[in-house]
Write a structure and sequence with these properties.
The protein is of the alpha+beta class and 65 residues long. It has a three-stranded mixed sheet with strand order 1-2-3. The protein has one domain. The radius of gyration is 13 Å and the shape is globular. Helices cover 35% and strands 31% of the residues.
């Protein structure tokens, strides 16, 4: 995300379970993730970091930003 780099914000991504298969609308999922990251970036100060974590739990997955 170029905006994070230009603002001096580190973006860290952690995927706990490497094999995550999602059957969904790719466009909507992309839109949701972009909105979450954009909101996080707007509320993060220069020099701070944004942490994204994805965890699989049985038939669900959780994404925290």
């Amino acid at each position: 995300m170029q905006q994070a780099i230009s603002k001096g914000v580190a973006l860290r991504v952690e995927v706990v379970n490497q094999e995550i298969e999602i059957f969904t609308d790719e466009i909507r999922l992309n839109q949701m993730l972009q909105n979450l990251l954009s909101n996080a970036l707007n509320n993060t100060f220069e020099g701070d970091s944004i942490n994204v974590k994805v965890v699989k739990a049985k038939i669900q997955f959780f994404c925290s930003v």
